[in-house]
Amino acid sequence: MNNVIEPLRPATPAEIDQLVNIYEQLLPESIQFVSILQDIVRIKATLHGTALEQASHRFRKTIYVPNKTHSIQFGTFLAIGMDEDIFVMVNTLEQPPSELEDAMRKTSYIKWHLNPMFVIGGDNGIRESLYKVVDERGILHSITLTSDCINYWMHRETAATLSYDVPDDVELKPLHVEHAKTIDDLWPHKYNVSLRYFETVIQYNGGLGLFDKNDGQLVACVIKNDHDGIGLVLLQSASKSV
Predict the structure, then answer these.
(1) Residue limits of the DUF5645 domain (predicted)?
(2) How many domains does the chain have?
(3) Do residues 22 and 93 touch, judged by C-beta distance below 8 A?
């Protein structure tokens, strides 16, 4: 990498605004990209000092753009978390995604040896480029490739008319940080620093829980994840009425 010019650089606030504007023109299909860009900006504006240091590294993402004059030309960006919990979201509007593929291949900002988790949209060209870069590194055989993240959306006017009934034996209340341990224990994808992630999610993004009126036990919950979307719904297996 010493002889390779770094293909990426951190985006300026103005460039992030441009990216958001580009993807807002493509709503609703681009909702996941608008959401993560806006969420990163919000977190950076909200967390400072000790609060920032204690936050999950999955929340502490930096947005990178191509290291060139017209960096926003194709809407190419990589949002990369910190070393302890690296999540990488990438996207581009270029077809084929040559600029993005070259960036993933050459950048030093992706710490491949730390096994980052990639999040991509439904673009098959981007998926193929990612597979190609991973295969070139000789690690395709050692990683798990899944496609289990689907975004659902509805117009806000429709959402405002929805109604729901809460069963009589439970009550709906906001989640608090102390509930993170229960959620982490229930989550089937638990990993070594996932508790810290849930603590940060609840503290800064919020969530709702259904609590048993008799013993106060958390029986079901939903949180807003680090992509600024509804990212986790958990239900205690013993709960019958929810």
Answers:
(1) 7-133
(2) 2
(3) yes
19-30 exposure pattern, b = at least 16 Cβ within 10 A, e = fewer:
bbebbeeeeeeb
d(CA 170, CA 35): 31
What is the domain range of residue 118?
8-142
Q: Model confidence at 242, in pLDDT bands (50, 70, 90)?
A: very low
Which of 138 and 236 is assigned the larger pLDDT? Answer: 138
Q: What share of the chain is helix, strand, coil (3-state, %, to 5)?
A: 35, 20, 45
pTM, 2 dp = 0.86
Domain holding 180: CATH number? Answer: 3.40.630.30
Helices (H), the chain: 13-24, 31-46, 49-54, 98-106, 124-136, 156-159, 180-186, 194-204
Backbone angles phi, psi at 55, to 5 degrees: -70, 155
Contact 32, 151 (CB under 8 A): yes
